[in-house]
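INFO  loader      accepted 1 record
INFO  loader      residues=379
INFO  predictor   begin
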Amino acid sequence: MPLLSQDKINRLPERAREVVEYRKSGLSLNHIQGCSLGCSYCIRHTYGLWDENQPRALMSDAEAVEELVAHRYFQPHVTPIQLFNRATEPFLPKVRPHTFAVLENLDARELTNHVLVITRHKLTDDDADQLNQLRHLKVTLLFTYSGIDNPKIEPYPSHIAAESLKLMSAPEVRKYRTVLYWRPLVPGLNDTDEHLATAFELSKHADATVFTGLFYRGEIAEYYKANGIPEPYEGTARRKIVPETLERRVLDAFSSTTALFRKTSCAVSYAHGLPDYNGHVGIRELCDICPLSQLERCLNAHRVPSAEQVRDVARVLPEARELEVVDITGRAAVVSGLWEEQPRYFLQHALGFQVHDERHPHHANRHGRADIGWKGTPA
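INFO  predictor   done
INFO  writer      dumping tokens
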């Protein structure tokens, strides 16, 4: 793939130039940007990348991996990694070779970090063969599936992701894991009884299933209005929106399974037989749907840090010099003085324990989601 000139890179939006960025489920590598799938709710809206519908590279794969592993947030064997999760589809024909080049480079370093690869594209037996050549990384394929059939919202049909999930889950012996990434669930759009039943049947092919709602940010709302797409909610939110009644219906539809999770890291960790690397187990209402074996695994790994331990971990980060530990309970450490999200994710993964920002409290039973659609909040 041709490299962008430095002049063109300099003209990109600031966040698009940030090849390595920490997100909640991992340190995200995005040196290839641009996607042709056109999902209306794509996070690319918020990075100023929506109009880039063809992938292009900001640097070589080798340079990108070096930037990742040399990053101040990266911890060998600890930091979960996300590959091309905010700027392109990792299995587009032009992107696929770069996806495998990055995976093979990381694996050759004998790193055992989680690597999350989120896709909705058509995968093949050759992809399975290549993934099975990796010896060290803990790779998870998360197949984005919604069942939405409105081409203005989701032009690339969901059934392709469903077939890819089935194909990649079929081998009896495989080193990678598969997750049904059931999202975005939106009331009145893809939550009929038929939608829920179809997702339940599809979940039987995956190692785990995680369900979640819509990131409905201002930029996405503006795009919906400009393109005549029905607005799903009256307001926007910084967190994903999963109304209370929708969650209840999902749990009822999946009442006979034990591999359903509310959080991505929980599903990924379960699929690999490991405790949740985000330490959600302290928030026990999150875990009421977890398999007992996974709950025990997470509880055995659960360690409540002291305030001094939190500060010790934060000392390596210049952007955390104003950090203050407000409170620590068995649920989470509450901190202030972090003026962006990224150092908080670093702390969370380094400690294996929830770290919350005092400015954005987690309300009981919302599970870290938006308040929209919950009792006492707007519908």
